[in-house]
Design a protein that fits this description.
six-stranded mixed beta sheet; about 550 residues; globular; alpha+beta; seven-stranded mixed beta sheet
């Protein structure tokens, strides 16, 4: 081979290499959106910092506060597990603000995946609602976003991510806002106020069952936990003085589990819910709290002893289940001032009654403006896994044969436990679509595009939870940005109203709500069972 030929081949090879590099560069430029980034959905605790104790933070009007979402680890029982938390804690900080004040949250995301913050129940400006690519761009790992939040309503609210919250919230990204009323007599006097966040986490063989970037699992039932946490702790003890009256702000941040809580031997009074106080205070045997709901109760502790915060589920499928969540240890020392007298009184909140009752009278007998149905659709492949062997009937009518019959016969509205763990774990958002269907247009989920209303109007919505669905179960329905009243459940009128943002619609129930459209913007409405949300169960509505 002569020198001239060799040089020619070298030049030709160099040209080919250059053209190849140009081609690769053009390909990556044109198709960079198709190259999916790898996010951290691992459950390995690795060497992340240990979870710290949650702190209370008191902010004034105009204050700036930095809140950092980060990877952590915690010891829960005998398991060392990965968690996510705000400012190194699970729950995140309890943030106290005054009604009418506005604060600035400087959010930094260090979770290994995109994130946002949704200020649940707070009627914020739409651009700060935290819904990715609807109200704001998603916040990439390592980046920041500034939220301005004005708190118009007293009560208890909470914050959590709205990007793959079936992973991020379940691992610990949640915290409370407690909004102090302008009116010093809004609440009755108490000795103390304590926020309690109730949740559960699923730990199997000392670790969390895996999560996936491209889809959600545990989609039929949602990911029920088997370990209960109160403010991030397993069965904590809370010290109480004899004679104390304590107001508890209860928040359920679990993915799917509803709680029915009471304290044997302690009198409990219901005074408020999602968006502030109720019309008429009442003594109750227990309160039910659906995922993302809040209940505000007061308790009086007259005598020494240990009293258990108890979750009691009356489940016709597995029988009654009772769990002790926390202990109130009442010592011998009496509180210096007791508010027992005020506790025994049941107040009627006239200002709230005057606000709500004219609306109820006007709309309770009106025809619904919209009717939606809650159900589920599955692929043929998924349905066939649950069909009865040898059956010639369509899979939709034979899936979970005993479960549908039991719900229909017993009138059970709520599934309190995961009755089919292995099948549930294998059920994914690739095969299952939980559905909200507008019966006026027959559009479903994201295809519902015509809910456009003027600010200042009200719409009556009928929600039908289809008992003949493939898998009937309860759905906690949440409306962003605006509040609503429950008018009736199964044609039985509600008689003690509270403004709400979330309500649990039981299997087979028909619920009428009145949605107040006071806050302009494009808003999400969805089921707050996180795996249901991430398998499609949401739609948008607009207030102009």
């Amino acid at each position: 081979m002569n020198l001239q030929t060799t040089k020619g081949r070298i030049r030709f090879s160099s040209l080919l290499g250059f053209l190849l590099l140009v081609f690769v560069a053009i390909f990556l430029f044109l198709f960079k959106g198709a190259v999916k980034p790898k996010y951290d959905f691992s459950v390995d605790p690795d060497q992340y910092p240990m979870v710290k104790e949650t702190q209370s933070v008191y902010l004034k009007n105009g204050d700036k506060y930095e809140i950092v979402a980060q990877r952590l680890q915690a010891k829960i029982g005998n398991a060392q597990v990965k968690m996510l938390g705000y400012n190194g804690t699970v729950p995140g900080p309890f943030i106290y603000v005054h009604q009418g004040d506005e604060i600035i949250l400087e959010f930094k995301n260090l979770t290994g995946l995109p994130s946002t913050i949704h200020h649940h129940g707070v009627r914020v400006d739409n651009r700060y609602d935290g819904v990715p690519e609807v109200t704001q761009p998603v916040v990439p790992d390592g980046k920041s976003f500034t939220y301005k939040i004005k708190f118009d309503d007293p009560g208890v609210y909470w914050y959590h991510p709205h990007y793959r919250d079936d992973y991020a919230q379940e691992l610990g990204l949640y915290g409370n806002y407690i909004v102090i009323p302008k009116d010093p007599h809004y609440w009755a006097p108490v000795n103390r106020e304590i926020p309690l966040i109730l949740t559960d986490i699923l730990i199997k063989d000392g670790k969390l069952p895996e999560y996936y970037q491209d889809y959600s699992n545990f989609v039929f039932m949602g990911r029920f936990g088997n370990t209960f946490l109160i403010n991030g702790h397993v069965q904590p003890t809370i010290e109480v003085q004899k004679g104390e009256v304590i107001r508890f702000y209860l928040t359920n941040t679990s993915s799917v589990r509803p709680f029915r809580v009471f304290v044997p031997g302690v009198k409990m009074k219901l005074v408020g819910g999602d968006n502030g106080r109720i019309e008429k205070e009442q003594f109750v045997d227990a309160v039910v709290i659906a995922p993302s709901e809040r209940q505000i109760v007061e308790m009086y502790f007259p005598s020494p002893g240990d009293f258990k915060l108890t979750h009691h589920a009356v489940d016709p499928l597995v029988g009654p289940r009772t769990y002790e969540l926390a202990t109130f240890h009442v010592g011998d020392q009496a509180v210096s001032v007791s508010y027992e007298k005020e506790f025994q009184q049941l107040r009627e909140n006239k200002e709230l009654i005057d606000e709500i009752e004219p609306l109820v009278a006007k709309y309770k007998a009106a025809r619904p403006d919209r009717t939606i149905r809650l159900s589920v659709a599955v692929s043929k492949k998924e349905a066939s896994r649950f069909s009865e062997p040898g059956s010639s009937a369509p899979p939709q009518s034979t899936a979970f044969p005993g479960l549908i019959t039991m719900l229909a016969k017993t009138g059970a509205k709520v599934e309190w436990e995961d009755h089919m763990y292995l099948q549930n774990k294998m059920s994914t958002s690739k095969e299952i679509t939980w559905q909200i269907t507008d019966l006026g247009t027959m559009k479903t989920n994201g295809a519902i595009m015509d809910w456009n209303y003027k600010q200042g109007s009200y719409i009556k919505i009928r929600i039908i939870n289809d008992i003949h669905s493939l898998h009937p179960m309860q759905h906690p329905m949440h409306f962003h940005g605006n509040r609503f009243l429950v008018l009736a459940v199964n044609d039985v009128e509600e008689t003690n109203h509270v403004w709400k943002d979330t309500f649990m619609v039981g299997a087979g129930d028909v619920v009428d709500i009145l949605l107040e459209l006071s806050n302009p913007g494009k808003w999400m409405a969805h089921c707050h069972i996180l795996e249901h949300l991430h398998s499609g169960m949401m739609f948008m509505y607009t207030v102009d």
